[in-house]
Known about the structure:
Elements: H1 3-12, E1 21-23, E2 26-30, H2 32-41, E3 46-48, E4 55-61, H3 65-74
Amino acid sequence: MTEREVLEKQEENGQQGFWLIQIGSFIHAYGNGAFALARATGYTVRRKHRRMGDILTCGFPAERLGQVVQKIEEAGGSAELQSDG
């Protein structure tokens, strides 16, 4: 799934959820999901420059996924793990 597809899916669900996407050894959230992830974990939201315009992202090392899921749940959210395969 591309960054643009993630943002479109989040828009379709009324920003009621967000997707975490693994790219290499890091996992990222985009747009409003980046802010939700930052609130739950304390990670920083960053602005990335893309050809189609700037995008907001928040990421963390993949080996911390379990800790991040726990923090999301402690903040009142829920997480559902899925794979593309």
